Structures are given as C-alpha cells and as structure tokens.
Amino acid sequence: MGRAYEVRKASIQKTGAAKAKLYTNYAKEIYLAAKKGSADIESNISLKRLVEKAKREQVPSDIINRAIEKAKGIGGEDYEVVTYEGFGPGASTLIIRTLTDNVNRTVGMVRAAFNKVHKSLGVTNSVAYNYDYLAILSIKSDKFEEIFNALLENGIEPVDFEEEDGEVVITVNPTDHNKTKDVIDALILGVEYELDEEGMYAKDKITLEGEDLELFQRLIGLLDDIDDVTDIYHNVNL
Is residue 230 included in any domain, yes or no? Predict the structure, then answer.
C-alpha cells in the first residue's frame, strides 16, 4: 500500500482521550479561530471546518457556542500555537503541538517530560525536516474515480490517493485542505469524514523494543498529561 494508507493505519498519537481535555482543546482552538478571523461561522471557513470537526467528535454545542461568544468580547486570553521538537528513546523523534497562553509554563512542562526519561528537546528543524506537513481525509465511498477526476478538474493534485475496502484516503497539501472538502461535499451530499486531519507525518518509521519502547510509551503518557499539549507526532510504529 502507499504511504497515505500506512499513515492512516498508524495515524498519529492524538491526545484528548479524556473528554474533559478534548473539550478544552476544542474550546481553545475555536476561540482562537474566531478571534483571529470572524466570529461568524459562515464567513470564516477555518472556524466553520473546526466547528464541523468538533461536532463530529461530539463536543457539546454549548462549549462551541461559549468559545465563539467569548471571542466576540474585548480582551480575553492570548493563545498561541507553539511547536516543540524532541529526541526520544532509541532513534525516536517527536513533534509536540501545543496551544498555550503561557509559553514559559508550557516549555517547562514539556522539557520536564523529556527529562524524566533522560531525553531532550531539540532546536527548530532538528526533527521536523524528517516529517511532511500533510492533510489527510478519508471517506467511505465507491466514487473513487469521480472524486479523483473532480479534484483534478478543480486544480487539486493529491499527494496520494488510495482506495482500500471501500474507503477512499486522500492526502493533499494543507493549502488544498478546505478546497478538497468543498469538492467532496459538492460531489457527495451529506458525506461523513472518517478522518480529517492536518499534521506532521514521519517520512520513515522505526520500531522500538524492550526498555526503549517502555520509555517511549512513558514519554507519550507524560506529554499527554500536559493540558497545553494538543497533538503529538512521532516516527514510531506502535
């Protein structure tokens, strides 16, 4: 199979297994999207797509609405996205995405997690050069050829495009993410996305064993426990 299918199978180590953290992360993301652009969902495509995704993950409407209403006010939290790169056990590498209103607090907690497994953070691009920034979408559909042709007709050239057991997996550059969804939405009314992600995907995967694997899993757990951490990307086959 191609890399898109492999990426979908391995996926990324998503945080937010606990509903409370999932809801908090979405509230922050929605607030930031509405604050940076317009609080009107229909005129802010980034906000609209984010709200759609939150609803698919069953985030309560009142949490979504409160975040949008909060963004309409004057002042408020000044959240920013900060990404860290690090070296884990064995030859593992990690990219940690955070959404924070206090960078000093967040970097201190992320660094402490690495220190506890005797590993360290890296400088900018010490890890990221081995990852691709991609958008990956998957849907259940038998319209494999129609979707592919419609994308090409709209000037979108997929990085990867596959079908497996009735599931179409589409990988595109993030700049084409929303446009790709527009094309699919127009072609398949009421389409439901099995996967709808933008993230950093490792160009090559490694396998860890024994103590290295145990330490890596501990590190993932420590990072996942940090409230400001929203996504963890890595190069390890799990």
Answer: no
